[in-house]
Amino acid sequence: ETGVTQSPTHLIKTRGQQVTLRCSSQSGHNTVSWYQQALGQGPQFIFQYYREEENGRGNFPPRFSGLQFPNYSSELNVNALELDDSALYLCASSSQASRGNTEAFFGQGTRLTVV
Amino acid sequence: AQSVTQLDSQVPVFEEAPVELRCNYSSSVSVYLFWYVQYPNQGLQLLLKYLSGSTLVESINGFEAEFNKSQTSFHLRKPSVHISDTAEYFCAVTRRGGNQGGKLIFGQGTELSVKP
Predict the structure, then answer these.
(1) B42 versus B33: which is more confidently predicted?
(2) pLDDT surpassing 90 at residue B2
(3) Of A33, A60, B72, B86, which is most buried with the most CB atoms under 10 A?
(4) Distances from the Cα of A16 to the Cαs of A65, A82, A84, in angstroms?
(5) DSSP letters along A2-42, please?
(6) Do B106 and A4 touch (CB under 8 A)?
(7) How far is residue B27's CA from residue B105's CA, in Å, rounded to a whole number?
(8) Least confident of A14-23, A37-46, B75-84, B90-99
C-alpha cells in the first residue's frame, strides 16, 4: 500500500508567477484535501476534491484552484503568487464513506517560497 | 462553524515527566476530534482520534486523550515523555456526517520540547 506522495518537495517562485503542486493519493482513497500551513501556524483547509469535483472550499481566493484526475491524484494551482503564499502545502487523502468519517493521511508537503 | 484553540503554544518538559497539551473546541454541531503530530520538515501523522464510544482514546506510543463534551475539550496526555516525543502537536475537528471526511479545522499547534 503506497502512501500519499507530493511533488516537488521544495519550490521557489517569483511574485506574480503561477505554480502547480501535485499529489498522489493513498491506494484505495478517493478524496484529496489541500491545506496551507504558514510558518508557526496550524494547517488551513483550502479545498477538497471528491470524484473529480470540488467538494468544499475554505476561505481562499479564486486564484487557488485545483483538479482531481480519474486515478484520484490531484493538483493545486496558484496564480498571481503573492509573498504571503509562502508556506508548506499539505495534501491529505481519505475515503468518503456513506456514514461517518475516515482519517486523513497526509503527505510530506511542498515547501513553497515566493520571492 | 467550528474552531479549535490550543491553549499553550509551547510546552517545555523534562524527560520522563508527565505532560498535558490542552485543546478546546467550539462547534454548533457534533464533531469528530483528532490529534496529529508533526516532526520537523515533515507532514502530519495521526496520533489518535475520537469518533464515538468511550471518551478516553489511546495511541500506541503511550499518549491518551479524553473527550469532555460539557467542557468542549480534548486534552492530550502522556504520563512519561521521551526525547523522541519532541514535535509540534495539532488538535483538529471535523463535522460528523457523510461527506465531511478530510475537512479538518486545526488549532495553532503546541510545540512540545522534551529536555534531558
Answers:
(1) B33
(2) no
(3) A33
(4) 16, 6, 12
(5) ---EEE-SEEEE-TT--EEEEEEPPTT--EEEEEEE-TTS-
(6) no
(7) 11
(8) B90-99
- A82-A85-A86-A89 Cα dihedral, nearest 10 degrees: -150
Look up residue B58 and give its amino acid.
E
Flag whether pLDDT at A97 surpasses 70. no
Instruction: Compute the average pLDDT of residues A68-94.
Output: 96
Contact at 8 Å (CB) between A108 and B38?
Answer: no
Q: Which three cell numbers stand for residue A15?
A: 511574485
Coil, strand or helix: which one is B75?
Answer: strand
The Cβ-side half-sphere exposure at B107, using a 13 Å CA radius, reads 30
Burial B22-52 (b: 16+ CB within 10 A, else e): bbbbebeeebbbbbbbbeeeebbeebbbbee
Identify the closest residue of chain A to B9 by CA–CA distance.
A40
Neighbours of B106 (CB within 10 A): 21
Distances B20 to B33, B44, B57, B77, B116 between C-alpha atoms, Å: 16, 20, 14, 4, 18
**Residues contacting residue B60 through CB under 8 Å, at least 6 positions apart:** none
Cell numbers placing A23: 499529489
Q: Write out chain B residues lying below 8 Å of A108, CB-based.
A: 42-43
Rounded to the nearest angstrom, the gap between the alpha carbon of residue A115 and the centroid of all alpha carbons in its chain is 21
Mutate to test the interface with A, among B33, B35, B38, B44 (most CBs of A within 10 A): B44
In 3-state terms, what secondary structure has residue B84? helix
- A57: its cell numbers: 472550499
